[in-house]
Design a protein that fits this description.
This protein is mainly alpha-helical and about 220 residues long. Helix content is about 70%, strand content about 5%. It has helices at about 10-25, 30-40, 45-60, 65-80, 85-100, 110-125, 135-155, 155-175, 200-215; strands at about 10, 105-110. The mean pLDDT is about 95. The structure holds adenosine-5'-diphosphate and magnesium ion.
Length: about 220
């Protein structure tokens, strides 16, 4: 199979990314919820699925005409419909993405890398958290590092986004031995050790959905 190598994330691909992530959340709802049952309150998959069920009809009713509008719609919908920590955190990430890409209908790797770095920093600021605390940042951080590395090295969009997926997945697995200090898992102290963080797991799905959308 030959595949056109695109250097830009288009508006169509960006919309497909959001839909794919929503589909992945719905397919992994039980899994994410099970992970959250071990170190939280067992609702992570349910929370995010509720959010994306609200996003889909809005995209269908009025397809956004630029990347900023798309991600702002996603962010504000997640904030208003998802209870729990992950709604405002993912909501902040998407609002930051939307702010960084306002008015654009395409984004090259450098812009996407900068926008996702701002999104990552937004989650850290909102959550008063940093890497190593067994949260979604442990997947998000390595993924944005990979995007920055690929940008600096002049690698292609697809290759770089695929590297970000691996980085996010490795980061997610690396949450297993970590001690949680933030969110509900933080209340468990030592008992949080030995479990994979649900938020990092969903963030790895976010990057996997991005790679699938860039590569199709
Ligand atoms: P809640 O904990 O309110 O039930 P969810 O279950 O939907 O919310 O989401 C839990 C996930 O949110 C965690 O697995 C973790 O990755 C993430 N999280 C929680 N608190 C923080 C924080 N302060 N900073 C970053 N991520 C966090
Ligand atoms: Mg929960």
């Amino acid at each position: 199979m030959t595949m056109a190598v695109s250097t830009l994330l288009t508006l169509d691909q960006a919309c497909a990314w959001v839909r794919r992530f929503g589909d992945a959340i719905s397919q992994n709802k039980e899994y994410l919820t099970r992970l959250d049952a071990a170190i939280g309150d067992g609702d992570h998959g349910i929370n995010l699925d509720r959010g994306f069920r609200a996003v889909r009809p809005k995209l269908d009713a009025a397809p956004p005409t630029d990347l900023g509008a798309l991600y702002k719609l996603v962010g504000s919908t997640l904030i208003s419909t998802v209870g729990g920590a992950s709604g405002p955190l993912y909501g902040t990430a998407f609002l930051r993405l939307g702010g960084a890409l306002a008015g654009k209908t395409t984004a090259g790797l450098p812009e996407l890398s900068t926008a996702l770095t701002l999104a990552y920093e937004g989650v850290a600021a909102r959550g008063k958290s940093r890497r190593g605390e067994k949260t979604m940042l442990d997947a998000f951080g390595p993924a944005v590092d990979a995007l920055q590395d690929g940008t600096e090295a002049g690698r292609s969009l697809l290759e770089t986004v695929e590297a970000a997926v691996i980085a996010a997945e490795v980061g997610t697995e690396a949450t297993i031995p970590l001690l949680a200090t933030k969110g509900r898992a933080g209340f468990l102290g030592e008992n949080s050790i030995g479990h994979q963080d649900p938020g990092a797991t969903s963030t790895a799905l976010l990057f996997r959905a991005l790679a699938a959308s860039v590569g199709s």
